[in-house]
Specification:
- The chain is of the alpha+beta class and 171 residues long.
- It has one domain: Roll (Mannose-Binding Protein A, Chain A), CATH 3.10.100.
- The chain is built from 3 helices and 11 strands; from the N terminus they run H-E-E-E-E-E-E-H-H-E-E-E-E-E.
- A 4-stranded antiparallel beta sheet has the order 2-3-4-11, with no helix packed on it. Strands 8-9-10 form a 3-stranded antiparallel beta sheet.
- It is globular, with a radius of gyration of 17 Å.
Length: 171
């Protein structure tokens, strides 16, 4: 009987619709669309920080109007390798892609929204997951910071865990 209940619960959870992003529009936007300039090559320039971001998480590609495919997860070392490969291919016409710092990645968090905490017009299909940074957690090796786009907060992660990547260029 218990085994049958587990199957039903699993089915109900798996069949439930995905919750949509929720934003409190009574709060000021921290990353409004007006702050970003879209390019035709799948990147987005932040006019406040002057950084350039790939609009799609690694694993997805820009089709001219949105992101398609599926985001992939990487260990920290794999993430660094993937970013180096972006540079070798001159993705979006650039060869200075890198993992962002914690502060840089949190600069695109839309704190008035959650699930995910990002401007989905600027960065479509961003999952609520954690994204790697290059910020090392002092005194706790081999740990670095990830920013969780569920709500935009930063956490310490082990470099062997698997998280997503949003490359940045500039500065």
């Amino acid at each position: 009987m218990l085994k049958g209940m587990m199957v039903v619960v699993t089915f109900i959870v798996a069949a439930s619709p995905v919750m949509a992003q929720k934003c409190d529009t009574s709060r000021p936007a921290t990353a409004p669309l007006s702050r970003f300039e879209a390019t035709t090559n799948g990147s987005m320039k932040d006019t406040k920080t002057r950084l350039v971001w790939l609009r799609c998480s690694l694993g997805m590609s820009w089709n001219g109007s949105s992101c398609e495919g599926q985001t992939l997860t990487y260990t920290w070392r794999e993430a660094v390798t993937e970013v180096n490969e972006l540079n070798a291919r001159k993705a979006a016409g650039r060869s200075d892609w890198r993992l962002p710092s914690m502060d840089e990645l949190q600069s695109i968090v839309e704190f008035r929204c959650f699930k995910p905490a990002i401007n989905l017009q600027a960065f479509p299909y961003t999952p609520e997951s954690g994204f790697w940074t290059d910020t090392v957690s002092e005194g706790v090796s081999p740990r670095v910071i990830v920013v969780l786009f569920l709500h935009g907060k930063a956490y310490i992660a082990n470099k062997n865990q698997r998280w997503r990547v949003r490359p940045v260029a500039g500065n």
